[in-house]
Design brief:
Elements: E1 5-9, H1 13-25, E2 29-33, H2 39-46, E3 50-54, E4 56-57, E5 60-61, H3 62-71, E6 79-84, H4 89-94, E7 99-102, H5 107-119
Parallel strand pairs: 1-2, 1-3, 3-6, 6-7
Antiparallel strand pairs: 4-5
């Protein structure tokens, strides 16, 4: 698989740093976008294989971003794993997420879900 680019849309700077380190160790290219960025535009530009999207992203709502991604032909098929400290898995999955992680999660849980999502 040539595209091993993961995009992080996460507002916790410490979390971004930890995820970057972990994912790079696993052989992924990692791009972190600012919490206030236009995420769908960044996805179009960078074309990641997976977007790791925080449910509560600063002033933005992860579900609104997911809806926008799913509503555009260029981004409709992007694989999205959402994460949150709240139990919102069902809502995220019903809106079109490919996976969900409840924070705090173990690094192995993320890597396993990423591999599962990429191979699906």
């Amino acid at each position: 698989m040539s595209n091993k680019k993961i995009m992080l849309a996460e507002d916790d700077i410490t979390m971004v740093s930890l995820l970057k380190t972990l994912l790079k160790m696993e052989g992924f290219e990692v791009i972190a976008v600012h919490a206030d960025a236009n995420i769908p535009e960044e996805v179009k530009k960078e074309k990641p294989i997976v977007l790791l999207l925080d449910f509560h992203l600063g002033a933005q709502n992860g579900l609104d971003i997911l809806d926008e991604l799913r509503g555009q032909s260029e981004t409709r098929d992007i694989r999205v794993i959402m994460s949150s400290g709240a139990s919102v898995k069902e809502e995220c999955m019903n809106r079109g997420a490919n996976g969900f992680l409840l924070k705090p999660y173990m690094p192995d849980d993320l890597i396993n879900l990423l591999k599962q999502t990429i191979s699906a």
